[in-house]
Design goal:
Layout lengths: L1 H30 L19 H4 L7 H21 L4 H19 L9 H17 L3 H14 L19 H17 L11 H20 L1
Helix pairs in contact: 1-3, 3-5, 3-6, 4-5, 4-7, 5-6, 5-7
Length: 216
Amino acid sequence: MKEEKKKFLYSLLIPVSLLVIMWAIKLIEFGFNTNFVTLGNYPLDIKGIKGIVLMPFVHGSWDHLIANTAPFLILATALFYFYRSISLRVFLGIWFLSGIWVWFGGRPSWHIGASGIIYGLSSFLFVSGMIRKDSRLAALALIVIFLYGSLIWGVFPDFYPKEKNVSWEGHLGGAVAGLLMALYYRNSGPKRKQYTWELEEEITDDTENEYWKIKQ
């Protein structure tokens, strides 16, 4: 129990730390009546290349930041809890790949916000949970579908006909990045738990194989 609590607290460390930075930036913008939109990602322009890294820290409004906070915290914590051995690599892979996608394929405008990472985490947790055939991770994948299944429509430009400022490119880039990470690390990370009856079947099969070898 103590070990599980320690593992959970560790899983919170990076997500909470990043959220603190996001909120601190928004508070600075509010307090000094300024904005840091130019820290965002501006496609195919050297001035926006820094946004590949910095884009998730900047949000256009309080509503934008609040809307991203809970999904980011829940999904990132799930990643670091269930995929501890590969979590940092997956997280950074999603972060950079989604940013690179936006820089190469986005509209000529400033792209900001952590939505791309949220889409990437959702995509990774769902796909990885399904391909691993692990009951715990499959359950996690179903929870992701239940809570964030509607996110899939956000990768299409026509989903936001009246909201031209929404970066569907970031959403799509994040979703693709999560898919790629799930496929790339399909054989790494948590292993499926084997139950007693499965181990007994393996022992029985091994014993039978040895028996037939001896007879032959």
